[in-house]
Specification:
The protein is α/β, with parallel strands linked by helices. It folds into two domains: 146 residues, 3-Layer(aba) Sandwich (Rossmann fold), CATH 3.40.50.620; 92 residues, HUPs (Rossmann fold, 3-Layer(aba) Sandwich), CATH 3.40.50. Helix content is 30%, strand content 14%. It is built from nine helices and twelve strands. A three-stranded parallel β-sheet has the order 1-2-3, covered by helices on one side. 38% of the residues are buried.
Amino acid sequence: MHPPHGRLAPSPTGAQHVGNARTYLIAWLSARSRGGRVSLRIEDIDTWRNKPRAAAEALVDLRWLGLDWDGEPVVQTTRLPEHTAALEELKRQELVYPCTCTRGDIATAASAPHAEHEGPTYPGTCSGRRAADAAGISTPFAWRFRVTDTPSYDDICAGHVELDLHELGGDFVIWRNTNVPAYQLAVVIDDAAIGVTEVVRGDDLIPSTPRQLLLYLALGLTPPSFAHVPLVIGTDGRRLAKRHGDTRLSALRAAGVSAEALVGLLAWSCGWLPEPTAISARELLPLFRWESIPRSPFVLTAELLARIGYNH
């Protein structure tokens, strides 16, 4: 077995918080504990959502946590030529088609709404088009991938996963009508380009995985293994947000919380420590175990934050 190649992929659409830190720590430890590489990619293709200085601050946050990476950071928006080449290959295979539907069109045609982050199922309005039909379309259009099946897969953390993409949105967008790649295509091309063999991310992205497996197959690329870890949530059962108070890493730093105190809390939440004891990321390397991580979300309370010296 070759050492794994993992990656950290912060998005500059907002500040990094405790939930992000837990996922990054797990991803880093999984690769480093087996002598593997870790790459860093700034996922900035949602340019209209990017916040000033957020990318630079993410690097500060990662270094503060004690997480390093190999080579120079990759900036996703610099890789548009590679994304475009992948789109052209999918067009050649007639696996995508131009779609002029708006979000409103899709919502109106859908028989029922689905999960909040998935949206309604695409009704196939434009699926009769061929790739060449794009030349005759004068209005903005996206490119959708034709879903014929849903690959199942074995997740390192979540176990065996079987979904039905027809129930989770159907044909999906891989290229937006603003002429930029969508998340699903961009991450596949970028992970394959640097040889990523293990993707660790939040379990809210489990529905993305069969979509990405379809793209890996269509483009003749070798998919990585996937590990989807439970999220950090507030006491209301919802993912961390401003309503839960300020859990930004920069806020913890400003309040004098040490990185070791936070890492110890996160390590305890993953079952690697019996108590939330201050420890560095590197000291956790011999303690890392996938099987110790609980399958349920980690509930972050004000009391736990107070234990590490943060009263927000």
